[in-house]
Amino acid sequence: MSTDADYKPGLEDVPAAKSAVSFLDGKKAVLEYRGIPVEVLAKESSFEEVSWLLIKGALPTQKELADFDRELRQRRSIHFRLKDIIRNMPGDGHPMDALHAAVASLGMFYPCHTVTNPAKNWDATVRLIAAMPTLVAAFARTRRGDEILDPRPDLDHAGNFYYLLFGKEPTPAIRKVLDACLILHAEHTMNASTFTARVTGSTLANPYQTIASAIGSLSGPLHGGANEEALRQFEEIGGPEKVKAWLDAKLAANPKYKVMGIGHRVYKVKDARATVLQEIAEHMFAESSRPVGYETALELERVCAGIYGPKGIYPNVDFYSGVVYSAIGIPTDVFTPIFAIARVAGWLAHWTEQLVGNRIFRPEQVFTGKNDQKYVPLDQRP
Ligand code: COA
């Protein structure tokens, strides 16, 4: 029987799987996908190529990438009845809840009942990566009364997603920013949603259920939801000159107040992805036209470094991603769904890896209840 001495809250430092998908050194801010630094991939690669790299384990040949890209473009469309389901979702619902339900529904229209057929597993893998932007954009449009658009097979993954959201093609610069953001969010070792995908996948649930579970996990404010909260926090502060007073007031009310977009279970220095996103933001905003939110973020980072730096708490990926998405015109509550559109590649890579030699997850507990209690019949209870 397990005891308190065995228990690690949050499973901190407990290995939950053997994995070759990605590598993270939180003290040196190193993040590699299959051995390649994420900063290099964000600059040189594409989300399509990175998805293949994560799932298949190596960079694709030219033919492999061309074939994969064609398959993705072919599977972007969704069944008309799935569009009806999305149209009938409450317009004031959260897009992450809509995505969760839509991905589970996707599996009913394109079933993959068993996970023992590699061809069917691959089909579901491609469909999930290809269709998630369609699902996110469909809800984002229909809730504001706009028609759901058909995917554009002539555009790449990032360009098509932007078109599906806004009904126009992105500029090459915006397309590149969006593609880089997808690459930066595609994978991150054994985080909560990846662990969730592995737990659900370990029951041999179908891949759509596995990904829907992971989406639920990603939706929380301590995980993917932090990017929304970070932007709202910058808006609440209202400007760089108000940062110090804002933080003083928060800490006076609650000394354990958590600043959104900083801190990480593994990183003890600034997250490499936050650094790349900050570079992207610097590139997007000329010095003269920096949005107030970005100026506020810069000042909050500076103030927080003084307070939390000695504890190894620095900006994570969510600190700057919201500022970048907001500048592209993306609604705040669609930030986390974009995270999911990217992270599905990592979840599927872990699912594919785990299917070989799968064992169902069944951890232990430290029992803190009572034994040998009497059952009192209802009519004898007060
Ligand atoms: N702001 C202020 N203090 C923070 C903090 C934050 N964002 N994150 C952690 N801390 C402090 C805690 O108060 C705690 O201090 P203590 O030792 O004096 O009690 C210490 O750091 C450890 O925090 P803990 O919550 O136990 O760390 P964790 O590893 O369980 O949690 C996160 C990691 C990411 C959940 C946490 O840092 C957080 O909530 N960050 C804000 C949300 C966020 O940005 N999430 C996105 C992650 S990519």
What's this, in brief?
Strand 1 (22-25) and strand 2 (30-33) form a beta hairpin. By secondary structure, this protein is mostly helical. It is built from 16 helices and three strands.
Describe the structure.
The structure is a single chain. The chain has 382 residues and is mainly α. It folds into two domains: 9-223 and 333-354, Citrate Synthase, domain 1 (Orthogonal Bundle), CATH 1.10.580; 226-328, Cytochrome P450-Terp, domain 2 (Cytochrome p450-Terp, domain 2, Orthogonal Bundle). Helices cover 55% and strands 3% of the residues. Strands 1-2-3 form a three-stranded antiparallel β-sheet. Strand 2 and strand 3 form a beta hairpin. Helix 6 packs antiparallel against helix 16 (335-355) and helix 7 (157-166) crosses helix 8 (172-184). The longest helix is centred in the middle third of the chain and has 25 residues, at 118-142. The protein binds coenzyme A. Coenzyme A (COA) binds next to helix 15.
Provide tags for this entry.
382 residues; mainly alpha; Cytochrome p450-Terp, domain 2; 3 strands
Quaternary structure? single chain
CATH class value of the largest domain: Mainly Alpha
Low-confidence parts: none
Head-to-tail CA distance between termini? 36 Å
CATH topology call of the largest domain = Citrate Synthase, domain 1
Helix coverage percent: 40-55%
Sum up the overall morphology in one term. globular
Largest sheet: 3 strands, antiparallel
